[in-house]
């Protein structure tokens, strides 16, 4: 289990995260909802070791991750698929995947390349072409595949639906669910609450750097303030 408690993060004088707690279980998807600037991306970046917390706990299967550099966090089995995809446009699809597996053994790289191609057959078709020629949706699939290459136990996804057409959002969300069903723990930040709630198991709501609600998706759906804030009145009546 991945457990974050009482997390505080500052960028100089700016407090980005003031009290965030969440858990992610193997085989389950924890969805993080919250307004722009609430501290969602900072939380993921801090777990990933890209930013150091000012205080708080980040514990993976009983061991603290606080203070570890990003490459060590990857080595412990946590991978981040960043917002905005950030694929290497001039490299091929296959080369982008290989980069994600640079810490892995050859055997694991081959296994996870196959997994990425199995989840997203279009990547296999385009494997020798430049990633920059992929559509936005295909680039998101590639970023997702690249995140799997380090053979993670937990994968964090920062707004995977951003800028994608609804049909592609469904494909990406379906793959997030499939990965969880294969046993990975998923921590997903998503502005598209509807799409996220369709596949998630647990929800954490973040407001101005603090987690203010956490519970199962079922509970969240019956919690009127959560529904009203993220889904609108129509969803409450449904
Ligand atoms: N590199 C940085 N330097 C200074 N302040 C930052 C930096 N990154 C984020 N912040 C600030 O920290 C706060 C939280 O930002 P963060 O990006 O984590 O929020 P978010 O919930 O992910 O929002 P969004 O959905 O817009 O990405 C905001 O006030 C933001 O302006």
UniProtKB/TrEMBL annotation:
Keywords assigned: Amino-acid transport, ATP-binding, Nucleotide-binding, Transport
Pfam families per UniProt: ABC_tran (PF00005)
The keyword Nucleotide-binding is assigned to this record: yes
Coiled coil residues, start to end: none
The keyword Transmembrane helix is assigned to this record: no
Gene3D superfamilies per the UniProt record, alphabetical: P-loop containing nucleotide triphosphate hydrolases
Protein name from the UniProt record: ABC transporter ATP-binding protein
């Amino acid at each position: 289990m991945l457990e974050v408690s009482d997390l505080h993060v500052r960028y100089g004088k700016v407090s980005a995260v003031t009290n965030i707690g969440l858990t992610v279980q193997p085989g389950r998807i924890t969805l993080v909802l919250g307004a722009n600037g609430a501290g969602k991306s900072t939380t993921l970046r801090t777990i990933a070791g890209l930013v150091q917390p000012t205080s708080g706990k980040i514990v993976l299967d009983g061991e603290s991750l606080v203070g570890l550099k990003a490459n060590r966090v990857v080595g412990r089995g946590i991978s981040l698929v960043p917002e905005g995809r950030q694929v290497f446009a001039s490299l091929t699809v296959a080369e982008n995947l290989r980069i994600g597996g640079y810490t892995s053994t050859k055997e694991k790289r081959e296994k996870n390349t196959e997994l990425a191609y199995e989840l997203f057959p279009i990547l296999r078709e385009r494997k020798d072409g430049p990633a920059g020629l992929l559509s936005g949706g295909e680039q998101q699939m590639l970023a997702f595949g690249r995140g799997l290459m380090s053979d993670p136990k937990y994968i964090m996804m920062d707004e995977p639906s951003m800028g994608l057409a609804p049909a592609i959002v469904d494909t990406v969300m379906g793959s997030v669910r499939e990965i969880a069903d294969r046993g990975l723990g998923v921590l997903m930040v998503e502005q598209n609450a509807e799409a996220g709630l369709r596949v998630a198991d647990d929800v954490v709501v973040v407001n101005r750097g603090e987690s203010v609600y956490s519970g199962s998706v079922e509970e969240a759906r019956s919690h009127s303030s959560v529904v009203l804030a993220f889904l609108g009145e129509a969803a409450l009546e449904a």
